[in-house]
Every structure is written in C-alpha cells, then in structure tokens.
Specification:
Elements lengths: L1 E6 L2 E4 L4 E9 L6 E7 L6 E7 L5 E3 L7 E6 L4 E6 L8 E8 L11 E2 L3 E6 L1
Parallel strand pairs: 2-11
Antiparallel strand pairs: 1-3, 3-8, 4-5, 4-9, 5-6, 7-8, 9-10, 9-11
C-alpha cells in the first residue's frame, strides 16, 4: 500500500502560479506511474499529468500543456505539479495517485491522496 499526501493548494488570481507536492510513503517501489488528476464541482475526475517512476517520461492533458510541469524527486519520494498561467477553468480539487501501469486512466490508479483545493479567481 502507498500513502499519498498532497499539499500546496490555495487561492490564486488568474495568471498566477501554484506548486503542488505529493509525498509518497509505504510501498513506494510498487508503482510505475505517479499522476495528477482533478475534479471540479459537477464534473468527472480528469487526468492532468503523469510521470513514470523509471525514466521520467511525462504526459499531459491537452488543456494544461505548456502551462503545467510535472516532476519528481526520487530521493524524497515526492512528485510536484508546477502550475503556471492559471485560469478559473483550473479550479478543482487536485489529487495525486499511483499506478502499477504506464497509464493515464483513473481506473488504473490504485492509491489516491486526499486531494488539495485549487481555486483561481477571475
């Protein structure tokens, strides 16, 4: 089992930046991919970004390409999501999650954090 704790959410104005962190503990050797998802009120959870544990390969949703950057620090078992040029459509609860697969499908992710709220004001 992997335990995940997100931090770094908050309130920011349009055009601002935030950096989310996700610290993993437990069976951290058991996952292939660490991903970020988000869920806005009344909407389904959607993929945001992911990074592979072995080779740092990254993947992004089209809506965040060029604005968000996912990275990891293996020594700290931590994954980061740097979010720039934020807009109100980015408002959501952001979750990090781990998967034993090279996937970006939410159903393939087994361990989830509690989520952190990101609110972008116009």
């Amino acid at each position: 089992q992997v335990q995940l704790v997100e931090s770094g959410g908050g309130l920011v104005q349009t055009g601002g930046s935030l950096r989310l962190s996700c610290a993993a503990s437990g069976r951290t050797f058991s996952f292939t991919t660490m991903g970020w998802f988000r869920q806005a009120p009344g909407k389904e959870r959607e993929f945001v970004a992911a990074v592979r544990a072995s080779n740092s390969f990254t993947d992004y949703a089209d809506s965040v390409k060029g604005r968000f950057t996912v990275s990891r620090d293996n020594a700290k078992n931590t994954v980061y999501l740097q979010m720039n040029s934020l807009n109100p459509e980015d408002t959501a609860v952001y979750y990090c999650a781990t998967s034993p697969y090279a996937s970006k499908l939410a159903a393939d992710f087994r361990s989830w954090g509690q989520g952190t709220q990101v609110t972008v004001s116009s």
